[in-house]
Amino acid sequence: MKEHRSVKVRGLGLALSAALITGCASHSANVQTSSTSASELESVPAARTTVSEETEAEVEILQTGGTDSAPEELTDGTHSDVVVTHPALSQPLSELELLAVEQNPQLVKLYQQYNAASSRSRYVNKLPDPRLGANVFGAPIQTASGSQRAALSASQAIPWLGKLNAQEQQACFEAFAVRADYLSERLRVIAAVRTGWYRLYVIDQQIETALANQELLQSLIDVANAQISTGSATQGDVLLGTLELSKLEERLLTYRKLRVAVQAEVNRLVARDADTSILTPKELKIDLPALSAQQIYQQARESQPEIQAAQLRTQATRWGIEVAHLSRRPELTLSANYFVTDNNRPPSSLYKVGQDPWSLGAQVSIPLWKEKYDALEDEATWKHLASTNSESDLLDRYDALITELLAEARRAEETAKLYRDTILPQAQQTLRADQESYSRGAVEFDRVIRDYRNLLTLELGYHQAIGELAIALTQLSRVAGQDVPLQAAAPPALPEPQKLSEPE
Questions:
Q1: Max Cα-Cα span within the chain
Q2: Looking at the domain assignment, is residue 209 inside a domain?
Q3: Fewer beta carbons under 10 A from the terminal one: N or C of the chain?
Q4: Is residue 493 part of a domain?
Q5: Is residue 486 part of a domain?
Q6: Which domain holds residue 432?
Q7: Element (H or E) spanning 340, and its range?
Q8: Where do the segments described as Disordered lie (predicted)?
Q9: Which pTM value belongs to this model?
């Protein structure tokens, strides 16, 4: 395996980083809360407590196990529940998921961006740095008490404190949104790994089916050779069978090339060598979801990080309006000055010779340019409206996507059942009957070959339907953001095709 910089995306690190954002102070500004936000985001003053609550409720999709499997402790110390409940999946899939979470470059980048955003939330509400100054006079200022040779000054700007608090709240929600982006990408990467793994399963089944059909075809060619000696077949039958065998070999080459490409893509997602071997099980059992599209959509609204990110950004832009509104408030600057004076005058009873005078001062900014501040508020308002519409559009897209994926899963499941229970048994029965008829000279060899082609196509279609069902459920779980309960039914393995024995 190639070397990778050890950058662990850890759930504990997320919790620690999120805890740093607890400077989100409660504030009772006139800011409306979003009606589409999750319950923990209903009120802006709750931003302080949202950090720990949301961290504890972090979405984890890391392990695929049996229907009765308990949550497993992961290498980063967190626990995760199953998302798509499959009985007895092979171990390499769970290993791939853990590698993807720990090493995927996109996840590492988003985790680092979240740390950057959380760091910003810790300083945006702080006062500007104080200023110190010194002014040395080239020609001392002559006064009655002595020559003033220098002036020292210190100043501190104090913005409107309500504006600082609003900026802190906005930065907190933006950091939460980046964290939700990370969790959403984490779901996407794991779903992509599982999708690639299921595609590898389908390809392996297609290769195994093709190899089994090679043996079946070879047995047909052997029967044709035996029939030639009895005069009931011609050399053309053998040539036709050999041609089909060559076509099948070409199909196998295509499958193997495709497997290399899919395997390389999965390995890219987990950041390891492209030629690293990935194993798949001999049999895959997939069930349909037990929930309706509306129930899954409700799960998505509550658990999908991408939806939460849109809601958080809506909250952030709402605070942006408050920041723009408070920009009209004046900024206060306090200053202190000290003048260094020489003791170079005769003593006087009226004043102290050589005494260093000092002064205190205050300055206030005057927000005269109304058009500028109107434009700031307009900009913030338009950003908030755009964010709100983006949230609504996202909810609509997820609603449509869930309906589409659920329909696709049901179609694939019904197709697999149709292949398994009706079409494939009929095709196998037809092939066996024509094989026996050919051995008696009752049918032509090309009819047997046609039956063989049909059976091969149908068997490949069955495995393709199983793969499409698994992929649809994987994407459905990614969209829902959590485990989708499944029903308890699974297609059995296909019966083995029977070889035709040579005539005695």
A1: 146
A2: yes
A3: C
A4: no
A5: no
A6: 11-53+61-128+157-277+290-480
A7: strand 332-341
A8: 32-55
A9: 0.70
